[in-house]
Automatic annotation (TrEMBL):
GO terms for cellular component: cytosol. GO terms for molecular function: DNA binding; structural constituent of chromatin. Belongs to the bacterial histone-like protein family. It holds the Pfam family Bac_DNA_binding. It comes from Rugamonas fusca. This is HU family DNA-binding protein. Keywords: DNA condensation, DNA-binding. GO terms for biological process: chromosome condensation.
Length: 94
């Protein structure tokens, strides 16, 4: 599902206009992004938690030339699924 499809489905389920649904989805994404930029975590009960993970500087290798390179330290967004989401994706078999 792409963002446009998500917005269309959101509009359909909430009976909002497509423009209003687009605004709501974009606002949610903006809020999560802003909080992660500040270093906060965003938890949505039952769905999951968005957080920022730190990656240490390390040595790597250029696959084309085999030359050793330095990879700088960085931050990356991380998502951990909540129990309800995990259970929905992996239903128990009887």
């Amino acid at each position: 599902m792409k963002k446009g499809e998500l917005i269309a489905e959101f509009a359909k389920r909430t009976e909002m206009s497509a423009a209003a649904a687009n605004g709501a989805v974009n606002t949610l994404i903006a809020i999560i992004t802003e909080r992660l930029k500040k270093g906060d975590t965003v938890g949505i009960t039952g769905f999951g938690t968005f957080a920022v993970a730190k990656r240490a500087a390390r040595k790597g290798r250029n696959p084309a030339t085999g030359e050793a390179i330095k990879i700088a330290a960085s931050k990356t967004p991380k998502f951990s699924a909540g129990a309800t989401l995990k259970a929905a994706v992996n239903p128990k078999k009887k």
